[in-house]
Amino acid sequence: MVRNTCYPIDRIRADFPILSEKVHGKQLVYLDNGASAQKPSAVISQISKTYETAYANVHRGVHHMSQIATDAMEDARRKAQKLLNAGNEKEIIFVRGATEGINLVASSWGRANLKPGDEIILSVLEHHSNIVPWQIIAEQTGAVIKVVPIDDAGVFLIDEYAKLLSDRTKMVAVTHVSNALGTIVPVNEVIRLARENGSLVLLDGCQAVPHLSVDVQALDVDFYVFSGHKLYGPSGIGVLYGKEALLNDMPPYEGGGEMINRVTFEKTTYAELPFKFEAGTPHIGGIIALGAAIDYVNDIGFDAISAHEHDLLGYATERLNEMNSIEILGTAPAKAAILSFNIKDVHPHDVGTILDHSGIAVRTGHHCAQPVMDRFNVAATVRASFGLYNTHSEIDALVEGISNVQEMFG
After folding, report:
1. 8, 50, 174, 178: least CB-packed within 10 angstroms?
2. Where does residue 144 rank: exposed (0-12), middle (13-18), buried (19+ CB within 10 A)?
3. Residue 2 domain-assigned?
4. 282 DSSP assignment
5. Is position 6 annotated as part of the catalytic site?
6. Among 203, 295, 299, which Cα is nearest to 242's?
7. pLDDT by residue (tens digit) across 128-186?
8. Which of 9, 19, 145, 368 is the catalytic position?
9. CATH number, residue 136
10. Which residues form the domain of 29?
């Protein structure tokens, strides 16, 4: 494969200070972007700038610093709105991450709308964050969970999904991109079939938003979540998109300051969207820095990012397929830049430890996706997940590291 020489990889890598670090005396090769991505200088400096020059609590103060911080936070909300092409900024709720966003919908919408016998459709591909909240609400309401299977390549079986839909299906909650396998779910068809059935759809976009252009209006999805730390932004901040009418009908998820209109001991009335779901002091610095991360990826462009990462995935897949005793799990035709594999007769944790001594960071384990591991009858995999700053030479380093593992284990 020929590297895309138009992609400004050297400039991009220079934007990430941590990439110059050494691990065990070796140059860091960071291939764990699916767990959390590194941060460009623009995000790091924005965090410092906020706390050094423009920090105060938001929405409540008439003083200058409060107004500056409020304006910066709401500007970040508009950036998130534009990133997802939401209809208006009221539909953007700041949460601690995708996990909280899913819990918010499961709890608030679920308690208000689910009854015994109602059905929630998930898939085998789901991260635990899109399984456990639905199990909790199903136990509380008497709802039932149905699961869409995948085939041996890790493909979401759309025909089996269609068979699961019924007049009892109230919610379909599936990932946009599998964090364990990289499978891109055919979400347009998932949503179309749900619409015909009268069901709502939530998409977990954690692994999609850093890699793909997402348009929630074109998708006609009801809820969409993502986490900032996978989008080269800070941890502890994420976004829940929800259609305005649905959010208006949902009761608050948490109570406290900011989410109220008027409080008396007799009755409390709630604030308008989006503040109804943003109780307490938010992660102000994190929200503003998320705005900087969105600016950063937009400046590069998602077409360029997607093309670069597709090239990396193809090159890595080709190199690993040339090696003996390597099994790649997840070979769907439509994949994001995630490569899960095992080495015959070597535990993934041993692989990860040995690679680490060469400065190579990969993820090993079940990736918070144990049903996927069960589907392939494995306890864990090694996962290399690529980002906008990774290179062919880093993949070559990974391959060399794998060769060293194979030599050590005979």
Report:
1. 8
2. middle
3. no
4. -
5. no
6. 203
7. 999 999 999 999 999 999 999 999 999 999 999 999 999 999 999 999 999 999 999 99
8. 368
9. 3.40.640.10
10. 9-36+301-408
